Amino acid sequence: MQMTMTCAEESRAVAENLAGTFKPADTFFLIESSLPDYGGWNGDAVKSAASGGPFAPGLAHLQSAPRAKALFIRKPQSQGKNFYIALTNQTTPRIYHTTLVDTDELLQLDISSLAADATPRINGRAMDEIDELYAVCTNGRHDPCCSAHGTPVYHELTAQAGHERVWQTTHIGGHRMAATLIAFPAGIVYGHVDPSDVEALVTNQRAGYLLTHKYRGRGAYAGQALDAAAHQAAGAAEAIIREGARLYRLDDLRLREVNDLGADRRRVTFLDADGGLHCAEVTTGMSAPRLTSCGDTPKPMPQHRVVVVYPD
User: Fold this and answer.
1) Residue 185: is the preceding peptide bond cis (ω within 30°)?
2) Distance, CA of 105 to CA of 91 (rounded, Å)
3) Cβ contact 214:192 at 8 Å
4) Which CATH code for domain 1-231?
5) pLDDT digit of tens for each residue in the chain (312 aa)?
């Protein structure tokens, strides 16, 4: 009898390269709600809520911010209206928190206050800056792998980082790489996370280090506004450069530029803390057909070939 793998099992079996698989987002909005008016978290929870109902006006307002990504969050034994904003496209990324009186307050967020070095204000009050937050995709109605792999990681993260710092979230993309999560404030995205990885992930996050072997990419590179293809090429290059040069601290590398060489090739250049250049050429092609979601027909997916080169 032939056994059928889930999309996450297949991704792990073929040792899919994780780096360069997350699309850019300068600003993340995390809104607490189990969406009872929409029948709970469905497969496309944010899109459904944006199409009509009580959240639609607020989501439209939030998504007027440049390169914004909205997520719904929840956790057991929480019935509040917590709201977070992560500003990742800054030299010093930040994450802010407030408790909403009602969802209509989303319309009162001053989008202009999201500029660098400004504290976001909602309904006239300043939000509070916090030090860290973790959002784990557990949206099983989008793909069962998100719940199967994400829920155990959520519980272990809660044990390691503290209940107040960890949330379950709707789909963030790449469910075949479950468990996948975002570590804020920098917006570092990890995939293929197991409960056994969590202690090291939290310890390194708090010390300012990356786990390159679980690294999918990040929300934004400070001061950059790359398109999705260039952003993902930079993420793929970053992981290889960091591993080769043993530069694991988050601030060891800063993206300088991404140059389009044509034919799906890009030259990615980073600066290290001493001003040294680190370059790689990234060629993006397509994989053999693979499961991108459980139950779907396999299809080719972008994959990156990274070659570290000497700077000119």
Assistant:
1) yes
2) 29
3) yes
4) 3.40.30.10
5) 344 889 998 999 999 999 999 999 999 999 999 998 888 898 889 999 999 888 999 999 999 998 999 999 999 988 789 999 999 998 899 999 999 999 899 999 989 888 777 899 998 889 999 999 999 999 988 889 999 999 999 999 999 999 999 999 999 999 899 899 999 999 999 999 999 999 999 999 999 999 999 999 999 999 899 999 999 999 999 999 999 999 999 999 999 999 999 999 999 999 999 999 999 999 999 988 988 889 889 999 899 999 999 876
